[in-house]
Amino acid sequence: MSRRLPPLIPLRAFEAVGRTGSIRAAAEELSVSHSVVSHHLQTLQQQLRVKLVQARGRGIELTPEGIRFQEEIARSFDQIAQATCNLGGAPADRTLKIWCRPGLAERKLMPSLPDLRAKLRDRDIVLCPTNLRPDLTAGEADVEVTSLHHISSDTRLSAELLSRPRVFPIVSPGFLARYPEVTKFESLTRMPLLHEDSTKQWERWLCAVRPGSFDQLCGVRLWNAQLTIQAARLGQGIALSNDALVSEELAAGDLVEPIASNVRLWGYYVLSKASRWRDPAIVVVREWLHDICTAVPQQA
Predict the structure, then answer these.
(1) Please, where are the H alpha helices in the chain?
(2) Residue 82: per-residue pLDDT
(3) Where does the HTH lysR-type domain lie (predicted)?
(4) Band of residue 300 on the pLDDT scale cut at 50, 70, 90
(5) pTM score, two decimals?
(6) Which of 50, 99, 117, 118 has the fewest CB atoms within 10 Å, counting from its CB?
(7) Which fold is adopted by the domain 8-86?
């Protein structure tokens, strides 16, 4: 029985456009001009009698039908690539790139890397601590670990919740001794607050504890969680942190929680390209991340 297949060269061009996110990037990958890729897209749509791409600004985007089709054929292309590698005709890409929020990467993922390496001996693991978001659909990273208030509706991606940690203020014992009023909520906005790249996290926490208006927040901005935690340990002010990042310092008494609260503003999520969600290596990484987050003490 013969298979009903679309022309394979236009199909490959469409898959590259969907994966890279643009005609120009797909053309560079395929070593052809962008006009050739555009022609292939037109040919494929005419053959299938379905609109797969549409204009958006100065570029294009996949239609809902195009997104579903791209997800299906991407798995097929992945299988073809893997089958080719299995023949020994081409070396497999050993690199596994994990992008992660800096604080979580340094404090939780990096100490557990030997466990992951033992499970993935045939892969070269790259852990990239960053606040930037990778383009997973373009292959910029294989796995992303980040904090989100809600999951994107992008059907090209798959995501699952790792943990929803409690967020709370932290200070050094010395700071608490110098400013005992820090234990009162009303005093917080008059104290030296430590921010990451903006004041938004403090604003959200304050509103979650006690909805209402408050004065414009001041204090130094230190760009990432690692620096705010370190500044708090040095007695420079009050930082916001969470169970996953400072549980050891709290247990050791190096940091204290001046105000009791039970606020959960966001969750840590793991994301990858939907077509690779069940790849054996991705599954191993997901299970490894769940083990790490399960081991983090999280107060009720």
Answers:
(1) 8-20, 23-30, 34-48, 64-86, 102-104, 113-119, 173-178, 200-209, 225-233, 243-252, 280-294
(2) 66
(3) 11-63
(4) very low
(5) 0.68
(6) 118
(7) Arc Repressor Mutant, subunit A (1.10.10)
